[in-house]
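Input for the complex:
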Amino acid sequence: MAEVPLLGPGGLAVLGLYLVGLLVIGWLGRRAQQEQTLADFYLAGRGIGVFVLFLTLYATQYSGNTLIGFAGRTYRQGFEALALLMLMMIVIGAFALFAPKLYRLSQERGYLTISDYVHDRFGSTALTVSVSLACIVALGNYILTNLKAIGFIVEVSTGGRIGFAEGVIVLAVIMVIYETLGGLRSVAWTDVIQGILLLIGCACIFVAIQVEYGGLRTLAPELQALRPDFWTPPDADAKRGWLSTILLSAFAISMYPHAIQRIYAARSARTLRRSLQWMAFMPLVTTFFIVIVGLIAVVQFPELSRAESEEVTLLVLGDLAARVPALSIVLVVFLCAAIAAIMSTVDSALLALSALFTQDLYRRARPGQSQRHLTRVGKSFSWVAMVLCVYLALTVPETIWRIIEIKLELLCQVAPAVFLGLHMKRLSTRGVLVGFLLGTGLAVGFMLLGGTWLPSRPWGIHAGLWGLMLNLATIAAFTLAERQQV
Amino acid sequence: MTRLRLALLSLLIVLLTVPWFYIEPDDATVLGFPSWGMYAVVTAALYAAFVAWALGQYWTLMAGEAEDADG
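Predicted:
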């Protein structure tokens, strides 16, 4: 790993201060707790205002992958990575189609999780449990991926002085402490800081590269000379892949249980509407900035290998700090922002995971328990889940990890139950359940067997979308058959 | 406007954000981007504006309050 630390003693002090600040906010969240209920713990008493809601949505949707992974992808793919802009925007477009009604129903019926809605709408325990299990697996994978990313960033930024395992363990403990102290209230308040850091980090690196390197407009002739292929429009396969990527995002990322949790937690419909309206534009000042970083890095650091390109943002930051020592502060802010982005994603996913377990599995298995007891179970589960995720993050080999890394393929099979369930009155419950199972089976089959005798993305379309098409076709067939029987 | 029409309009705009119409290689550069890249950026920005507008304009329609009140 890196031998020269990107974070000096001053940078580490800032990072330490930030982490202590998170614990203080977690404690403040506990003090603000109004009652020992699941709604208070998991939804902050359904009272989050527009400023906090916007920043918690923002910090949660944009993970470390946005800051680090997107630049590496742009370095390799060139302007085709502009598809990432729509990948992030379309999630808000998808919310626009279902969040207004889901929010209204959540207020009327007191939903806590996505499965609460599914159970209320379809009345099928099998479907509810299936959806809960799919969400739990997806969230577990999401937490694992992000824990690995956070260990990597800590190790690289400290030049190996803090190792991968120590980084993962320390930050995981901090996250689970503030999460179990105040639930969503603490998580959302820490997201405010994390969201602001993320925004400042992206703006800083964007402005710094404009000033120091001259920006994309100045470097375009050099970039074109180095990579003329970047100017070639995507071919038909790549265009289908482009569309497939953004559609998968629309149907899967919008189903993340921690995103749904924030829809339920809004103080009012107006609050939610305003937050989503702002969110629609955030890719233009986050994803777009990072894509520009990746493009400029091609000129500054040509000929990087695939593995090296994954660290391209850090290379740019290190180079900026070496050229202009005053820009070291940008480096510190950006690294804190990257760590913050991952932490805000992991803590939110962990809270949603705990809610799914407590509300949808434990409460169903042991009805009649008090709210205080359930809240305590949820907090204990958070600790157990985090310990398990940390253990897996440290021990599962990369080769096995690639096989079990299934998130979006599972989540997009939940989408028909939400999108169609909300807007279509006559929908076959059995069709939704069978469609979910068949779609999941097909998507997982493509994922596991892809690259052997079966292509992993037939015709350039993601496995999850093939599953979704089978899912929708099954729902249509069952619904039509049931209508004919009536 | 109905909910279905709004969803279809949204899908149509999403489809148009993919640079389908750019097929031949073109060396032209617009503000540092190839023309098809600039097209992708501009259409993505227009989509963001559409989503923000639709959220403001059609929230009540998408919330389905009138439909549920009608039973």
